[in-house]
Amino acid sequence: MRVLLIGGTGLISRGIVKHLLTRGASITMFNRGQRENTLPESVESIPGDRNDFDAFESTFRDKRFDVVIDMIAYSPKQAESDVRAFGGRCGHFIFCSTVCTYGVKVPPHVLVDETFPQEPISEYGRNKVACEKIVMAAHQERKMPVTIIRPSHTYGQGSPLIDNLEPDAVSWDRIERGLPVLCAGDGLGLWVSTHRDDVGKLFAYAAMNPTTFGQAYNATRDEIFTWQDLIRETAAAIGQSPKVLFMPAEWIVGHDPKRFGLLREITQFHGAYDSSKAKRDVAEFRCEISYATGAAQTLADVRKRGKWKSSDGDSLYETMVQKALLAGVEPKRL
């Protein structure tokens, strides 16, 4: 099986490559070559900028792949270029979308499945919906079989570990030092975090599976956490018991809307998804890495790479904590 991975060096891509190699696939990746490439030498690399549409499409005009997986299409123009480049030239096109396409509403049964209306509140989500429509139209026009996969929060070695407030959290360093940390609301918002290797499994084993043609799938583990659960389990991974100050999301975001953009747009809302459809259609898709194991691996990797985020000098965060304490908020030990 000849596979082209557009992107290739990102977090989920590494999980995809791992499982494609297990399947014996021949892998080529296309990207600008600006990130460190830690993939096996057997993975061929084609350098280029996918936003130079003429050059991108020319590169693949005389090439044929069984599977093309696009991990880095974020705009309708990029999706349209995909259709021009690979329509009639690949056996299966897999598009990486996002659960952000659903927006923030919660169904009566809480878990969001693939039938839930797509009403995104962010530009990122709106652009991904537009991309989905373009590539699925190509499927309906029989230009190429298409599958859409929607990951939620994905983590693993090579990335920082988020908390409720921000993508590269300072809270883990504060917890290690015995200092209080902040969490929005009552910490009972629902959340799901899935390891990159488990998410990558769905992409790799959906490839050339005819059952997946024309379908969209959530790519998440079954276990749903609250933010209290996630903070407690992450703290346990570094041998600590966290002290948490629960404050309104609006209060936290108001101190720095840009820094706390993750909370503003995503994590203050429930994020719980149903991936039973993916497990039904792709038998190999089973999430096997527990959060406790994955969090420990991820934080150890952050230290190894020298990317541990220190709380030293973070005057804003410390000021917020002191304001909460002066207001009489009692830290809760989880």
Report what the structure shows.
By secondary structure, the protein is α/β, with parallel strands linked by helices. It has 2 domains: 2-154 and 193-219, Rossmann fold; 160-192 and 224-272 and 292-333. 37% of the residues lie in helices and 18% in strands. The chain contains 12 helices and 14 strands. A 7-stranded parallel β-sheet has the order 3-2-1-4-5-6-11, with helices on both faces. Strands 8-13-14 form a 3-stranded mixed β-sheet. It has a two-stranded parallel ribbon with strand order 7-10. Helix 1 links the parallel strand 1 (2-6) and strand 2 (26-31). Helix 2 (53-59) packs parallel to helix 3 and helix 7 (227-237) packs across helix 11. It is globular and about 65 Å long.
Uncertain regions spanning at least 5 consecutive residues: none
Q: Tell me how many strands there are.
A: 14
Beta content comes to 15-25%
Helix content: 25-40%
Task: State the secondary-structure class.
Answer: alpha/beta
Helix-strand pattern? EHEEHEHEHEEHEEEHEEHEHHHHHE
User: How many angstroms does the end-to-end distance come to?
Assistant: 48 Å
CATH superfamily of the largest domain: NAD(P)-binding Rossmann-like Domain
